[in-house]
Design goal:
The chain is of the alpha/beta class. It has 7 helices and 14 strands.
């Protein structure tokens, strides 16, 4: 049993699945404040919102007028409301060098304690992020106390398996994934709900890494968001899942299950970083060299 003097090994996650007012931060702010209050009342340690939760996703060329710096009053108000809970919110960031980014901010005790800028900008199917945002340049993790460490990826970031691997080898014992996934935006026979289910189950199980995914509910422009936000344990089992409407879900994680899962399936232990580093360097050096001329 944990006491007040012992490091916290259990973590209570909350995921806020909201229906965003499209392009209206003033209207979306009360939704965030209500979810933060409800999550704190429910004893959550971490609350995760969807990608671009403050603006909605399908804002296109309005991205420029919706961009705010990380020290904006709206961010500050949410940070104050979060108190000692970590709240993960999505916004369009006015960054350095007059660039705008699809970003998330981790808020706690009145401050921005961590920031992630989307790395893999989705520019395929009906998605056009590369036209509006500058990509991030770094992938880092942040601490949630002495045991837990969180990696954050935004939606399409997680469709690059190398980024999930990087988060794991940088010490992540929890993965937080805000997404904006609508039906039919990729094209062909691809199913977004099924694709996310398979991908999230795989990452959680293979890395022994519990994760939370937050999606939107409702409609934005012509995009129909399907909800389905969830929390998975380190075996890929679903601990909590939302339906297709606005909802706040909770799940509790135990750090011992991460230790046990990674002991029995040691993906991270056997990741062989020296090999990966060497081969990436070799491939980079040999770009443009015909296969028959490459050094073996």
């Amino acid at each position: 049993m944990e006491t007040n003097n012992e490091p916290k090994r259990r973590l209570k996650l909350a995921v806020g699945q909201i229906e965003a007012h499209h392009g209206d931060m003033a209207a979306n702010l009360p939704k965030h404040l209500d979810m933060i209050a409800a999550a704190r009342a429910g004893g959550a340690d971490v609350l995760l919102f969807p990608e671009l939760s403050l603006t909605g996703y399908c804002v296109g060329e309005r991205s420029l007028s919706l961009a705010i710096p990380r020290d904006h009053a709206i961010i500050g108000r949410l940070a104050e409301a979060s108190q000692d809970m970590w709240s993960v919110v999505g916004f369009i960031e006015e960054g350095v060098a007059a660039q705008i980014h699809n970003s998330l901010a981790v808020l706690r005790n009145g401050e921005v304690v961590f920031l992630h800028r989307k790395l893999n900008l989705a520019t395929f199917g009906k998605l056009e992020e590369g036209k509006h945002f500058a990509g991030g340049r770094y992938l880092e993790t942040f601490g949630l106390g002495p045991h837990w460490r969180a990696g954050t990826l935004i939606c399409a970031d997680s469709w690059n398996p190398a980024l999930v691997h990087l988060a794991a080898v940088q010490g992540a014992t929890l993965l937080l994934l805000p997404v904006a996934s609508a039906l039919g935006v990729v094209g062909g026979e691809f199913s977004n709900p099924l694709g996310w289910q398979r991908t999230l189950d795989f990452y959680a199980m293979v890395y022994g890494m519990p994760l939370a995914m937050a999606n939107f509910a409702g409609k934005q422009d012509d995009a129909q968001f399907w909800g389905g936000s969830r929390v998975l344990d380190p075996y890929g089992n679903c601990l909590a899942q939302a339906g297709d409407g606005e909802e706040l879900i909770f799940a509790e994680l135990d750090f011992q299950t991460v230790l046990t899962a990674r002991y029995h399936l040691p993906t991270l232990r056997d990741s062989n970083l020296d090999l990966v580093y060497r081969e990436l360097g070799r491939l980079t050096w040999q770009v443009g060299v015909p296969p028959e001329s490459r050094r073996l």
